[in-house]
Design goal:
This protein has three helices and no strands. The protein has helices at about 1-5, 15-20, 35-45.
Length: about 60
């Protein structure tokens, strides 16, 4: 997962980013099988403290 952290843009969760952009993670799953890590992530939220981008509205 450390590879994802280096490539993850600011304001994004490293796990969400890695699972969305790395097809190797889900390759082992059968057709129509849910990834247990993704399901847990969707139900319980991101376990990482994701820094938000600074607001430039003001």
């Amino acid at each position: 997962m450390s590879v994802a952290a280096a490539q993850t843009p600011p304001g994004q969760c490293p796990q969400c980013w890695e699972h969305a952009h790395n097809p190797r993670i889900h390759r082992r799953l059968k057709p129509r099988e849910d990834c247990p890590q993704c399901v847990d992530h969707m139900r319980n939220g991101c376990p990482y403290l994701v820094p938000k981008k600074p607001s430039k509205w003001w």
